[in-house]
Amino acid sequence: MAFRLSNNLIGILNFVTFLLSVPILGAGIWLGHRADGTECERYLSAPVIAFGVFLLAVSLAGLVGACCRVTWLLWVYLLAMFVLIVAVFCLTVFAFAVTNRGAGEAVSGRGYKEYRLGDYSNWLQKRVESTKNWNRIRSCLQDSKVCKSMQEKRETFADFMRSDLSPIESGCCKPPTSCQFTYESGTNWTKTPTSSTDPDCSTWSNEALCYNCQSCKAGVVATFKRDWKRVAVVNIVFLVFIIIVYSVGCCAFRNNRRDNAYRGGWKGGYA
């Protein structure tokens, strides 16, 4: 009974995982081969394909190993699951470690916050300070038109001051408040003489916006931090789930060995 329960449960779980891996793999291939795909989508396709292949291989090993009583395939499955548990645990700890610093600064009389790159962890700062990384990120931001909604707005300065901007909109689509530029509309500002020492004031232009500004990098890092915090919470739930699956897999593996030993002993005694 225990053999049937644990093996059937592992078989069902891995069949569901196998079904999930097919659309994930298909989505990764589709992203990589889209004729009009952006740089972001092509960059994202490689990890999506790798994750899909991993799920496909592991689920097949678990499915065949449990349902066909192939002990060595179950051993491979358990090894892969153990590696996955360690990887998810390390990723979760790392995510909390690199996102424990930094937050947006409230601006007096404004509905949005402003972001400074130096407030965040050194690891995140180095990732966006890298020219190669930033060129790719900037290309993604421009392709996704993150400032388009602001450019199309025709709101008054009073309305703009009350806007609840995202970190990326605040950092990349407007000049820093300290520059004291004159607001015209959307993303149009008139440069005025300023005593601010912020280098972003000279970087800003109505055509290129602030995609090369430190504030834009800070907005991207703030977005990473928010998303990584969410991923870390999801990872904790996922970790508990795969530990339970791993435990059931261990039971199925032990039952497989016991069943194989019993069959070998029964045949030997019968002979």
Please specify the SSE layout and strand pairing.
Blueprint: H1 2-33, H2 39-67, H3 71-98, E1 105-106, E2 113-114, H4 122-129, H5 131-143, H6 148-152, H7 157-161, H8 167-172, E3 182-185, E4 188-190, H9 200-203, H10 214-270
Antiparallel strand pairs: 1-2, 3-4
Family: Belongs to the tetraspanin (TM4SF) family.
Main location: membrane
Keywords: Membrane, Transmembrane, Transmembrane helix
Describe this structure in words.
One of its GO terms (biological process) is monoatomic ion transport. It is found in: Membrane. It comes from Panicum hallii. This is Tetraspanin. By secondary structure, the protein is mainly α. The protein has two domains: 1-101 and 228-259; 106-221, no CATH class. It has ten helices and four strands; from the N terminus they run αααββαααααββαα. Strands 1-2 form a two-stranded antiparallel sheet. Helix 1 (2-33) runs antiparallel to helix 10 and helix 4 (122-129) crosses helix 10. The longest helix is centred in the last third of the chain and has 57 residues, at 214-270.
What is the element string, with H for helices and E for strands?
HHHEEHHHHHEEHH
Number of discrete domains? 2
Distance between the termini: 27 Å
Mean pLDDT: 82
Helix fraction by DSSP (H/I, runs of at least 4): 55-70%
Runs in which pLDDT lies below 50 for 5 or more consecutive residues are: 265-271
How do the strands of the widest beta sheet line up side by side? Answer: 1-2
Approximate strand percentage? under 5%
Provide the structure class.
mainly alpha
Shape: elongated
Number of helices: 10
